[in-house]
């Protein structure tokens, strides 16, 4: 499966949880800690490397907190 | 308040990864005042992405409404102004007629567009003004505390209809997009929803068509977007999306009511 990852601007996150519900790989969780604005921000729980970089979190995020990365598609030699 | 990008939170697995999504340039890197989970933020981002994709940021002017989106001009990284309540189509008319090479869009809520500004949008549509209207319908007045709006579905409990909307007392919900679709000056009149990722993708495409309609000079383009208000609906953000699907979509069916033939492949 394609490997990907996301970086999260945690200070922008308001902890609404839309991305957590939308994530097909269930790799996003709310952090126990608060961000500078007092919200439990979202974090990538990437212990198993399941993120595929599909970008659905970025589509549903109302606060533009996500940047999405994905490994390049391998071309047939 | 620190807002530096916290890119070190996740260690990136080497430089071989491509960036497949990052925030649009047409949106400023400032936090919005919207409540957590409010779909206004998503719609702002979609409008900004569309402006970037079409390469029109340098000649686009936004007109902000009165309502929750009153500070929209602070969030878009382009020229903007603020209209009196409901008068965004009138202000956009003036801008577009005096500067016809600019791309002018209004961003209005349902209290602004359908209630106090109903007259303005009807006559802008009748005149066939070449403007783009983003109409965010969350069925209540969000900024003032969740009162009944003309768009509230029958039976909806709001802070000013605690027993649910009674048509014998408060009348019936207004379907602006269907009404505007009957007018010859309108090039695009579609309704989209925000209740799922698939619907959000369709919303983005409709916003792009609405801007394309203006670039091609076809007439007024309106995209009505069924949106959520978790705070005033007293629901969790995720449950609010379910509420759109279960309560709003049956009253306001998603679909294309009018779409100019030139736009169908864009």
Q: Can you give a write-up of this model?
A:
The complex is a heterodimer of chains A (77) and B (266). With 77 residues, chain A is of the alpha+beta class. In chain A, the strands form two sheets. Chain A has a two-stranded antiparallel ribbon with strand order 1-4. In chain A, strands 2-3 form a two-stranded antiparallel sheet. The mean pLDDT of chain A is 90. Chain B has 266 residues and is of the alpha/beta class. Chain B has a single domain, classed as 3-Layer(aba) Sandwich (Rossmann fold). Helices cover 35% and strands 19% of the residues of chain B. Chains A and B meet through strand 1, helix 1, helix 2 and strand 4 of A and strand 1, helix 1, helix 8 and helix 10 of B.
Task: Write a brief caption for the model.
The complex is a heterodimer of chains A (77) and B (266). Chain A contains two helices and four strands, in the order βαββαβ. Chain A is an alpha+beta fold and 77 residues long.
How many β-strand runs of chain A? 4
Radius of gyration of chain B over alpha carbons? 18 Å
* Average of the residue pLDDT scores of chain A: 90
Q: Architecture of chain A in CATH? A: 2-Layer Sandwich
> Strand sequence of the main sheet of chain A, in spatial order?
1-4
Q: Quick one: CATH class of chain A?
A: Alpha Beta
**Sheet with most strands of chain A:** 2 strands, antiparallel
Which bin fits the share of residues in helices of chain A?
10-25%
Low-pLDDT runs of 5+ residues of chain B are 1-11
Query: What is the 3D form of chain A?
Result: elongated
Read across the widest sheet of chain B, the strand sequence of neighbours is 3-2-4-5-9-8-10
What is CATH's topology name of chain A? Answer: Alpha-Beta Plaits
Number of helices of chain A: 2
Q: Please give the alpha-carbon distance between the first and last residues of chain A.
A: 19 Å
| CATH-defined superfamily of chain B | Thiamin diphosphate (ThDP)-binding fold, Pyr/PP domains
Total DSSP helices of chain B:
10
What is the chain-wise order of helices and strands of chain A?
EHEEHE
Largest sheet of chain B: 7 strands, mixed
What's the architecture of chain B in CATH terms?
A: 3-Layer(aba) Sandwich
């Amino acid at each position: 499966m394609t490997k990907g990852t996301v970086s999260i601007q945690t200070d922008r996150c308001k902890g609404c949880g839309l991305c957590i519900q939308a994530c097909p790989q269930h790799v996003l969780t709310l952090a126990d800690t608060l961000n500078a604005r007092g919200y439990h921000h979202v974090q990538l729980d990437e212990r198993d490397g399941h993120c595929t970089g599909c970008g659905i979190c970025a589509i549903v995020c109302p606060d533009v907190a996500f940047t999405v990365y994905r490994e390049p598609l391998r071309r047939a030699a | 308040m620190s807002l530096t990008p916290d890119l070190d939170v996740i260690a990136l697995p080497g430089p071989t990864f491509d960036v497949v999504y990052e925030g649009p340039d047409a949106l400023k890197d400032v936090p919005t005042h919207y409540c957590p989970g409010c779909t206004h933020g998503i719609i702002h981002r979609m409008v900004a992405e569309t402006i970037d994709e079409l390469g029109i940021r340098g000649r686009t002017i936004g007109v902000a409404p009165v309502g929750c989106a009153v500070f929209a001009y602070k969030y878009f990284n382009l020229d903007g102004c603020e209209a009196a309540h409901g008068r965004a189509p009138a202000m956009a008319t003036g801008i577009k007629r005096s500067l016809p090479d600019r791309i002018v869009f209004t961003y209005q809520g349902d209290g602004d567009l359908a209630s106090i500004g109903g007259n303005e949008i009807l006559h802008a549509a009748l005149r066939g003004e070449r403007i783009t209207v983003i109409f965010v319908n969350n069925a209540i007045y969000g900024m003032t505390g969740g009162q009944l709006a003309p768009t509230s579905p029958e039976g909806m409990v709001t802070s000013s209809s605690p027993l649910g909307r009674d048509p014998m007392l408060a009348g019936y919900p207004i379907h602006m997009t269907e009404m505007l679709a009957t007018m010859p000056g309108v090039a695009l009149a579609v309704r989209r929803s925000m209740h799922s990722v698939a619907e959000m993708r369709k919303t983005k495409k409709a916003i792009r068509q609405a801007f394309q309609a203006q670039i091609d000079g076809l007439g007024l383009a309106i995209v009505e977007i069924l949106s959520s208000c978790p705070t005033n609906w007293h629901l969790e953000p995720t449950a609010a999306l379910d509420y759109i699907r279960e309560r709003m979509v049956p009253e306001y069916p998603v679909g294309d009511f009018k779409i100019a033939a030139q736009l169908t492949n864009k």
